[in-house]
Design goal:
By secondary structure, the chain is α/β, with parallel strands linked by helices. The chain has one domain: Rossmann fold. It contains ten helices and seven strands. It has a seven-stranded mixed sheet with strand order 3-2-1-4-5-7-6, with helices on both faces. The longest helix is centred in the C-terminal third of the chain and has 22 residues.
Amino acid sequence: MPVSASDRSIPDPNQPLPEGAAKASAVRSMFDAIAPRYDLVNRIMTFRLDVAWRRRTVRRLDLPSGSVVLDLACGTGDLCRDLHRAAMTPVGMDLSWGMLVAARTEAPLVHADALRLPVATGSADGVTCGFALRNLTGLEPFFAELARALRPGGRIAILEVDRPRNRLLRIGHGAYFGRVVPFIGGLLSNRDAYRYLPRSVAYLPPEDDLLAIIRAAGFVDVAKERCSGGIAQLLTATRV
């Protein structure tokens, strides 16, 4: 089978992790490539735990009905659908055209870079984002942009992978994430993409540093919840 241009742009698992513009280009191409079966692979590799994590994310926003929520890196629209069920008004945004084409949501969708949101200052009530922090080229500008887009008192709820604190859980999770997930991804989608995703956890800073970045951007009530034994994390905060 010929290799597509998108496949050639997926980060080479045998090379160092890309940075800067090279990372942004590689991430966009990778998600374009895996979009058609993204939901299926997620459900299988998380045993549907991702469904519960997203619903918790919406609850932790703690916003009233009708609130305008930007769902960044919206992918195929999972969080948009949960926000809609919670009577909020989601707007999905993603850098990947492939994901937007594959999206299954009635929410308006926008092709946009999370570091340069096409919204007016103070125009959003909330922001959600699922499993994208490690794919961004910079966390400080990302949280600064969220602070700009949110009204005072606005809320963020950011879902991301994590490493369990328990040593045995950490070993088991590392083996599963590093070996089983690429195998499943290779069977159903793109092996190189699902070899890159476990490696991309290395982009995430230590917990204290990450929480400090959020506070420095203009947020209070910054909190982290560990989900399912610490294999995922939910970060919440309120705009000053």
